[in-house]
Amino acid sequence: MIELSCELKTSTVKHSDGQPAPVKSAMSVSVVTYEQLKAMLPNHSVQLYDVRSPDEFQAGRIPDSVNIPLGQLEESLKLPPLQFQQQFGVKAPKKEDDDIVFHCRSGKRSLTALEIAHRLGFSKARHYAGGYIDWEKHEKK
Known about the structure:
Helix content is about 40%, strand content about 10%. It has about 140 residues and is of the alpha/beta class. The protein has a five-stranded parallel sheet with strand order 1-5-4-2-3. The longest helix has 12 residues, at about 110-120.
């Protein structure tokens, strides 16, 4: 049996007024809220990728979302742009795009999708943490 140990060291930086500096984690910056997504959709200022299964996607989806199941995401993001467009019917995302948003049912798979995208160089990609559950809840109000 192998035991792994890791320590996390933190520090606080104080401003001249004595207050701790705000800390932004990379993941908090990468989250899109319902309100933000709702505002982006009419302007077509979002590339929205649904990483749920095709069956889940067919059962209900956010308008203008493109279904790329999580298991196919990495290979899909590596496709040449023309092949991506032929396969998914939309232009391929570029690594520098800041309007890429992933979503799933509840936020778990989209967080994994975000990690994959960031690893592949899509550093400005984000995810809708509330997922389709949150979307449906707001849309039924």
